[in-house]
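Late entry, 6-O-phosphono-beta-D-fructofuranose complex.
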Amino acid sequence: MARLTDRKTWKDLKAHAALPQARDIVNLFASDPQRAERYCLEAAGLFLDYSKNPVSDETLQLLLALAMDAGVSEQMQAMFDGRRINITENRPVLHIALRNQSERPIHVDGRDVMPDVRAILQRLGEFSESVRNGKLRGATGKAFTDAVNIGIGGSDLGPLTVCSALRPLAHGGPRVHFVSNVDGAHLAATLADLDPETTLFIVSSKTFTTQETMTNARSAREWLLTNLSGAESQNSVVGQHFAAASTNLNETAGFGISPERVFGFWDWVGGRYSLWSAIGLPIALAVGFEQFERLLAGAHAMDEHFLNAPPESNMPLLLALIGIWHANFLDLPTHAVLPYAQDLSWFPMHLQQLDMESNGKRIDRAGGTVEYTTGPIIWGAPGTNGQHAFFQHLHQGTQVTPCDFIVAAKSEWDMAEHHEILLANCIAQSEALLRGRAKEEVLEELHARGIDGQEAQRLAAHRSFPGNRPSNTILMERLDAHSVGALVALYEHKVFAQGAIWNINSFDQWGVELGKGLAKEVLNDLRAGRASPDHDQSTVAMINRICAIRGK
Ligand code: F6P
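Prediction complete; structure with ligand written out below:
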């Protein structure tokens, strides 16, 4: 098979990008009064306006031809069919099974996984409701008022993002806290406000061996045993105050967690795609199992859309192709995610893991080094706060950053006036990025204020904006469980389609392993009080300096 960059579809796009009008969005609107109506679509309760991007009908046709050429549809089908598309770990990739609400079976090695998925969901439902209604209690007989999720990466960010997004629905259950960082400050500060008698811990770890999570889990266990000593036997205390979400049932038992409090999942669920599995337990605890099911339904609706919608009106595919146009053909290396929703403040970070851990790859599926840009740098923060921090760069910086604005038309909070202001700012920012501000317009305004001549020219240069800066806007009626599910799944499939086109394996993460291994060696050195000579010079010096400061 020809390399991606040698293909006609790729070369056609390169030639198209070299045309002088390739970046002129304003002109695309001027020449097509129907553009706003045509360059938008709806799916799973989400509305996407992609008209403010430098793409014409011809650009879209070329991009769709690239997608077809790269076999995106076939790869998507392979994922939904349970084939082992994670080729470096020889695993299927089936987060879509976790939210499959159709009657369709999903087979792995000839066996339908859906009965197992449903069985765990039922147990999650029963457990979360028993904690919420106070039937399940701690070792001293008190109901749980607080639950602490201990996990990191996908075992933290997914449920944290959703719990935060659904904050207005969090009543009737325990307060849910998240501890991820091995920095003791995280656990200590969280425990400081908690009562051990009424605190439930959930250790969320696919492997149950992650250094940070296990360190936090052991310290939490010690805190519990120290503060509940005398209540009952140690085993019983741990058994009643700990639950786990993991694929490693041997390790959970070794930790002392009773089997009926362990919620399993499978190796075909990647960490960053796991919030739909038992890793979603904190969500069910916080907002109730019914809402968790609505979240799954929203994601399933997006799965069905991705699977069945034609390419030209397929929302995840279009987002993927526009992203590829920006990254590979217009050379725009970063992508900003700007939710105009305080409750989505963790969403940019969740997408950072989802996108950068999936597509931050430099080796293609055949084992060769890629010759093109793959996953962009994802960053962002909620609006309006970002406006007062980095938006200056978005409007006038030398690098152009494509942006995704995400906003709900209605608020979940009882502050109508605030929401109108929020919406106005969101809309205004994408408009300002598009149209910019011509120097003539600034000069006119300066003249009206009595500033003329050289001074007006000098100021006008600083005050004008180039415009033509691309953005998508994703609008939903409200930020509820269904739309949050659809939103997260939308980005999962966008990332999938991009990885398929770039011909990389989006489902492993070998790049994080080297640092993990070295950290163990450095830890041995820090404990011994001196660096082993196997490190590089700078590392030896740093370890020894730290040992000296610490008096080792
Ligand atoms: O950092 C790599 C990673 O494996 C992530 O992909 C994963 O979400 C995280 O670590 C946590 O892993 P685990 O759930 O096994 O503790």
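The chain has 23 helices and 13 strands. Will revisit in the morning.
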